[in-house]
Amino acid sequence: MIELGNYNTLKILRGTSVGLFLGDDDVDDLLLPNKYAPTDFEIGDEIRVFCYLDHEERPIATTLDPFIKRDEFGFIRVAEVNEYGAFMDWGLEKHLLVPFREQRIRMNPGEWYVVYCYLDEKSFRLVASARVNRFLSKDHPKYRVNDEVQLLVSRKSDLGWDVIVDNQFKGLVFSNEVFQQIKVGDRLAGFVKNVRPDGKLDITLQPIGLVKLDPAATQIYDRLLEEGGVLNIHDKSSPQDIMAMFQMSKKTFKRAIGSLYKQRRIEIKEDGIYKI
User: Fold this and answer.
1) Which of 72, 136, 156, 239 has its C-alpha lying 20 to 30 A from 38's C-alpha?
2) pTM higher than 0.85, yes or no?
3) Residue-level pLDDT at 204
4) Is residue 43 a part of any domain in this protein?
5) Looking at the structure, do residues 95 and 127 belong to the same domain, yes or no?
């Protein structure tokens, strides 16, 4: 059965002047328009497509990748607002509606918001909601202290930063434990500091027990994270290369990566430094 708002692997059943018709055991008339159809295919081939409703509310397939899927949280931009609500750009031709009743505050065109995408059971349409808390799991989390989790920063509060943990649970990163620049919409790795009796999670961005980094080490480690965990520079690099990348002396650089190495945050290899 085809799942709207998600990826489906379907068979190519026939080609027509408007595109390819795809199907499975239950459906045999899902259109993949010509502009998304592969140039090289055979009838019977399987193809992975995203399925949603077009402007006529008909199921349709695309090979585009949306910015958010059904039953997921995401950070996306409002394209326009009209009498029905806010319409968000989620990377597909038809925008994703956030009805006024699902807006925590009135949304404005051009601004970005954390929302949850779901299938409305009454209208059978994919919609989004900015009232994200009601879509978080009510189950008690089974994490242990220092378990690594994936975070979506959802809101700045008086205590710190509200985060969505592993697309399921509510968490909080306290302001006095943040030693890097973060903002709403950031996706980060974090670590469980405490599981409260009410099921909410206290989260830290550093593994429990690590010493706070000095400014030079923080600068290097932040850059390492930005570059995907690899930097093509190390303790044998020239002072000029180090100065060009970090605006610090080689002596300061070596002391900083030595600190990161002792804390088991990095590996130092012949071709660079790597995040552990």
Assistant:
1) 72
2) no
3) 92
4) yes
5) yes
Domain assignment of residue 269, given as a range: 215-275
Sign of CA dihedral 40, 42, 45, 49: positive
Same domain, 197 and 222: no
Do 47 and 84 fall within a single domain? no
- Domain's final residue, options 80, 107, 133: 133
Exposure of 11 by Cβ count < 10 A (0-12 exposed, 13-18 middle, 19+ buried)?
A: middle
- Assigned domain for 67 exists: no
Our CA angle for 142, 147, 149, nearest 5°, is 90
**Residues contacting 4, CB < 8 A, separation 6+:** 51, 52, 53, 59, 70, 119, 126
Sheet holding 272-275: strands in order across?
Answer: 230-231, 272-275, 266-269
pLDDT in tens, 6-51: 999 999 999 999 999 999 888 878 999 999 999 888 999 999 999 9
Asked whether residue 209 is assigned to any structural domain, the reply reads: no
